[in-house]
Amino acid sequence: MEPIIISIVTHNSKDIFRTLDQFASFLPDAAYQVVIFDNASEEAYIERIKTYSFVKVIQSSENRGFGYGHNQVLRNAKGTTAMICNPDILVDRQTLDELANLVSNNPLSRKTAVVSPKVLNEDGTTQFLVRHKLTVFDYALRFIPFQFIKKRFDQRLADYECRNLSDHSYSLIRMGSGCFMAINLAAFQAIKGFDEQFFMYFEDNDLCLRFEQAGYKIVYTPFATVTHLYGKGAHRSGKLFLVFLRSMAQFFRKWGWKFY
User: Fold this and answer.
1) pTM (predicted TM-score)
2) Residue 141 burial (CB < 10 Å; 0-12/13-18/19+)?
3) Which entry of 14, 162, 166, 173 is 20 to 30 Å from 128 by CA?
4) Which residues contact 226 (CB under 8 A, 6 or more apart)?
5) CA nearest 60: which of 52, 69, 71, 51?
6) Residue 200 near residue 234 (C-beta atoms within 8 A)
7) Could you read off the pLDDT of 202-251 as tens digits, one per residue?
8) 76, 28, 31, 36: which is closest to 53 by C-alpha?
9) Residue 85, Cβ neighbours under 10 Å: how many?
10) Alpha carbon of residue 55 to chain centroid
């Protein structure tokens, strides 16, 4: 039986060592294989990653983005299930086992392509990352620094962030977060993985919509949780914000512009 691949894409990602230390609490194990695709990080950084005996490292001489890296790991991988994991995720063995089982044996659909866990901050509060629609207006609201404006549109933001998802049952959703996904590997390969035009941001939304087009289902489970050491890079870095805007434009050009 092939191990379940945990695919991680890095580029000098500062939190990766916390992620790997968490994995080290239960790996190596024949059931799982951590594969890191590194997008041209510093040599000392890569050498430190290699000190984790359970990690396979694939090195690239250039940074071609998040989706490209995962495609290199997963497009020709063997097995039935894989995990797409950010380099700032903390997840335990029990959660991995539960998510893998739900991909293969899901009570909501026999054509499950993705199972998305509940994503938490370090303080245990929820990160509302599930989406059922995307509009330019909703993205603008998230970046506006004025709380009185956000308060005025709080109900709309709550709908945008799918805050009403049940904490007591599985739910069918349209778009889960790429920070962590358990995926049906055959379905991922059938739609040819991520669209590599998205360097970073929106590639997970695009992937989920393409699964939907192909007749697959995305399932959210509140019973399995991961912790996301969320950096909000596009909020803090002008360079990453420009990358975000470019990916947003690419997404709406592909799927149709929706402004409100």
Assistant:
1) 0.94
2) middle
3) 14
4) 89, 90, 91, 95, 117, 118, 119, 120, 179, 180
5) 69
6) no
7) 999 999 999 999 999 999 999 999 999 986 555 467 789 999 999 999 99
8) 28
9) 26
10) 19
pLDDT digits (tens, 9 = 90+) for 28-73: 999 999 999 999 999 999 999 999 999 999 999 999 999 999 999 9
Q: How many helices (H) and strands (E) does the chain have?
A: 11, 9
Tokens of residue 6, six digits: 């945990």
Enter the tokens of residue 156: 């709309």
111: tokens are 């054509």
Distances (CA, A) of 170 to 76, 198, 239: 30, 29, 37
The DSSP bridge pattern shows strands 4-10 and 180-184 to be unpaired
Q: Which of 123, 145, 94, 153 is nearest to 230 (CA)?
A: 123
Give me the pLDDT at residue 142, please: 81
DSSP state, residue 76: T
Q: Cα dist. 197→60, 141, 236, 253 in Å?
A: 18, 25, 23, 12
Provide the token pair at 148: 């009185």
Residues paired with 130 in a beta bridge: none
